[in-house]
Amino acid sequence: MKSSKVLAGDILLNITGGSIGRSCVVPTNFKEGNVNQHVSIIRLKKDNPNFLQSILSSWRGQKLIFEGQTGSGREGLNFESIKGFKVSFPTVSEQQKIASFLSLLSERIKTQIKIIEELQSQKNSLSKKLLSCQVRFLEHIEKWKEVKIGDVVKIGSGKDYKHLAEGEVPVFGTGGYMTSVDSCLYEGETVCIGRKGTIDKPFYYNGKIWTVDTLFFTHSYKSILPRFLFYVFEQINWLKFNEASGVPSLSKSTIEKIAIKIPSVKEQQKITTTLFAIDQKIDLESKHLELLKQQKRYFLQNLFI
Questions:
Q1: How confident is residue 2, by pLDDT bands cut at 50, 70 and 90?
Q2: pLDDT band at 141, cuts 50/70/90?
Q3: Using DSSP, how many helices (H) and how many strands (E) does the chain show?
Q4: How far is the C-alpha of 103 from the C-alpha of 110, rounded, in Å?
Q5: Could you tell me which residue ranges the Type I restriction modification DNA specificity domain spans (predicted)?
Q6: What contacts 173, CB < 8 A, 6 or more positions away?
Q7: 205-to-195, 202, 210, 241, 292 alpha-carbon distances in Å
Q8: Phi (first) and psi of residue 204, to 5 degrees
Q9: Span 49-61, mean pLDDT?
């Protein structure tokens, strides 16, 4: 097992399967371990492993890995092809500076992800308390009433869009945005929930929209605000209402019969405003995360030309 023994500072490179090309540097506090035949160990004599790992993660490095694959399925690297990678190394001092900079950027991305996760956790916790009456606003003391979803909103069915021309109206399925067409199925505030496939990821939308037949949308609201309904939908365990043994499925009648509790419209507005403020913060931090990722991609593409 000597050839498979992992040491601190080694670069571990996946050389087979769908994860081919992924790599990491073994941390300095690592004690001992071994790898299997799907992972190659790259051990440098004097150069900086974090620098080389950054090259392997860059567009240029991934191109070398793709071109170095062997076999009929082209999903494998061997040691000879790895040895044949042509890589330019600056001085060790410059390697250290570049590796440190990219490491700082990676840590900033991790921190940003943690910020978003904490905000999502905060929103989920507060949402549960607000929607279960564990937390109430002092000015609202009215008793909440229990209704069926079908009593306060209508469920619309999606349709095929392939007969439509290209346009500016987004088409959504259970997997998210698909394309844009020149006609809308509904215009206004709506909450979409999967009919088949992903049935536990509701989302709110406001504007012109088209949904395919695997995605329901809501309309014709009575005594309930659309965004409040969205927050209610987020708290429902939709998988509990799954009607199929294979691909998860929901029906209109099942959704319409689900019992929920709603307060006055004024209290709904207060709850919605509170939760939406957190949503806006999450959106802002998510955009910042994407900018950081774009920045890292830019440096990975341009530092190792």
A1: low
A2: confident
A3: 8, 11
A4: 11
A5: 9-119, 142-293
A6: 158, 197, 211, 212, 214, 215
A7: 17, 10, 11, 23, 27
A8: -95, 140
A9: 90
Query: Would the pLDDT of 293 be above 80?
Result: yes
Which helix (H) or strand (E) is 282 found in, with range? helix 265-302
Which DSSP state fits 42? E
Q: Is the pLDDT of residue 67 over 50?
A: yes
Instruction: Give the per-residue pLDDT at 71.
Output: 63
Residue whose tokens read 């004024």 = 266
For the chain, the distance separating the N- and C-terminal CA atoms, rounded to the nearest angstrom, is 37
* Domains assigned to the chain: 2-89 (3.90.220.20), 91-139+264-305 (1.10.287.1120), 145-262 (3.90.220.20)
Question: What are the structure tokens assigned to 297, written together?
Answer: 């991609």
pLDDT, residue 1, reads 43
CA distances from 35 to 2, 11, 13, 42, 51 (A): 10, 12, 10, 12, 22
> Which range among 11-25, 149-163, 284-298 shows the weakest confidence by mean pLDDT?
11-25
Q: Residue type for 17, please?
A: G
- What would the pLDDT profile of 194-208 be if each residue is shown by its tens digit? 999 999 999 999 999
Cα 153 from Cα 255, distance rounded (Å): 10
Which three-class secondary structure string do you get for 147-182? Answer: EEHHHHCEEECCCCCCCCCEEEEEEEECCEEEEEEC
Taking CA atoms, 183 is separated from 28, 155, 168, in Å, by 58, 20, 8
* Residue 74 Rama label (left phi>0; alpha psi -120 to 50; beta): left
Radius of gyration for the alpha carbons in the chain, expressed in angstroms and rounded: 26
